[in-house]
Each structure stands twice: as C-alpha cells, then as structure tokens.
C-alpha cells in the first residue's frame, strides 16, 4: 500500500510541482485580492445576489467606500502576508529557516508588488470599470519573475548554503 500524500510532501524541489502549487496559490490570491478590493470599495456583489435568492437579508450590502488606490494597497498587502505562509509552508518547502528566507521574500515581493500596483493603477485610469480583469493582468505580469525568484533564490531547494541557518529538527520553520 502506498503512503498517503501529506501537505509536507508538497512543494519539494520539483519545478513542476512547485509550478502547479504556484498556479493554485495564484488563483487563491486573485480571489482574495478581488474580494477584499470589492469589500473595501463598492461591496461584494455576488454574496448579496445569492443571499437574496435564498431569501436571506445580507448583513453587508455596501463596501467601505475606500478609494480604489487605498483599497488595492490594503488588499494587496493582505494577500502578500498570507502568500508568505502559503509559499514557505506548502508551495516552496525548503530546509532554510523562515527568517533566512524572509529578507529575500520581502525584496522579491516588494519589487513584484510595486510592479503589480503600478500596472493596476495605470490600467484603472484607462478602464475604471474593469477592476477584476485589471487586477488579474497586474498579478499575472509579476507572476513569472516571482516564480523564478521564489524557486531559485527565495525558497531554495536542498541544503542551506553559507550563512543560512537550517531549520532545527525538521522543516517546519518554527524552530530555526
């Protein structure tokens, strides 16, 4: 009988496995990013429609009324924080302690977030009613560079090099 697949087995060193998990994480990031953006600006439209369909009064009908620039900064920041956890613990498992990966992660994510944010803001000026498509374009533009950086530099596979501290007692990242 084969051993069942565990979450800790995912995201090893295989570029294919990492690529699939990166795509899955990107999909989750897109959903979280657009939902939070809508919640902070105009409000989520689909839950209201679904709740009214089943004859339940929605509690949140309108968004917070934030301007798109601030709402996107907040939604992107939230997704970035959650993405680190996904990347370190699931997608790009590494023997390097989380605190050794964090500066490289911050550098890569900062560059990609700046690129993403700039593209989204410039495109929103041209097509302000196409937020979801524009957010997808912004995220997709940074994804290629981000994946390669994560795979080879931020969360390297194999043994730590030089001054990087290995994780004590395993790869859970909490001990190192």
Task: Please sum up the structure shown.
This protein is mostly helical and 176 residues long. It is 64% helix and 0% strand.
Q: Specify Rg, calculated over alpha carbons.
A: 19 Å
Order of helices and strands: HHHHH
Mean pLDDT: 78
Count of domains: 1
Structural class: mainly alpha
Count of β-strands: 0
Helical residue percent band = 55-70%
Overall body shape? globular
Kindly report how far apart the N and C termini lie: 34 Å
> Unreliable stretches, pLDDT < 50, 5 or more residues?
3-8, 158-176
Q: How large is the share of residues in beta strands?
A: under 5%
Number of helices: 5
Sheet having the most strands? none
What does this structure look like?
The protein is an all-alpha fold and 176 residues long. The chain has one domain (14-154). It contains five helices and no strands. α1 (15-40) runs antiparallel to α3 and α3 (68-91) packs antiparallel against α4 (98-126). The protein is globular. Residues 3-8 and 158-176 have low confidence and may be disordered.
List key phrases describing it.
disordered N terminus, 176 residues, mainly alpha, globular, 64% helix
Helices and strands in order:
Blueprint: H1 15-40, H2 45-53, H3 68-91, H4 98-126, H5 131-154
């Amino acid at each position: 009988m084969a051993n069942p697949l565990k979450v800790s087995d995912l995201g090893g060193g295989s570029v294919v496995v990492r690529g699939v998990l990166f795509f899955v994480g990107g999909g989750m990031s897109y959903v979280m990013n657009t939902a939070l953006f809508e919640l902070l600006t105009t409000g989520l439209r689909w839950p209201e429609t679904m709740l009214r369909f089943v004859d339940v009064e929605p509690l949140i009908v309108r968004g917070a009324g934030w301007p798109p620039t601030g709402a996107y900064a907040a939604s992107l920041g939230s997704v970035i924080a959650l993405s680190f956890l996904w990347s370190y613990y699931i997608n790009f498992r590494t023997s390097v302690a989380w605190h050794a990966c964090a500066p490289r992660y911050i550098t890569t994510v900062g560059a990609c977030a700046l690129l993403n944010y700039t593209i989204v803001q410039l495109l929103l000026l041209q097509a302000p009613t196409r937020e979801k498509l524009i957010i997808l374009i912004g995220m997709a533009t940074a994804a290629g560079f981000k994946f390669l950086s994560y795979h080879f530099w931020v969360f390297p596979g194999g043994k730590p090099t030089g001054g990087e501290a290995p994780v004590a007692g395993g790869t859970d990242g909490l001990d190192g």
